[in-house]
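Hi, here's the filled form for the chain we discussed.

Project: internal
Contact: R.S.
Residues: 171
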Amino acid sequence: SAAATDVPMPQRWSDWIKGRFGPATDVSNLPNLGEGLALFLADPDAMRFLAVKYVVFPAGTVVGEPLGSEITLVHRDGVSDVYRLAGAKPYFDAGAGGCRVDTRSRTEVVVECDSRTRLVRRELYFPDWTATVDGRSATITPAHGLYRAAVAPAGRHVVRFSYGPARWPLA
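And the returned structure, exactly as it came back:
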């Protein structure tokens, strides 16, 4: 399907939205509708899952509940108010305990884990992405139905993600 902007809507994103907010949710118009924004404002945990750390509102906006009590004002000027949402999931996530994650860039991370771990990169899963662990090819799998993940063995490892579209044969 396509969004209201005529940009194709990834199926994984569409499926996640409908699974989270209900099958009748109009995914193609979600970003353009006040009701789409209202869905997210009423569900801070959805924003945390999506790794939303900051929320921006027009200056002077009164933020209602449940979001209002879960955000902290960090910047205010004549144009906008910027709030921090506590508890946002990290961009790279090695799961519960036993791991230290050092994000070097949006495509590279160093993980040091006590045991084998599934490293989730909070970026929409698409084919043609590849991963390496210490320079060796690693399999990328969907994570949480939305993101991409690669497995790293116990110990300290450098994990890199990269994109290379499949070659299309010329006619």
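Let me know if anything looks off before we file it.
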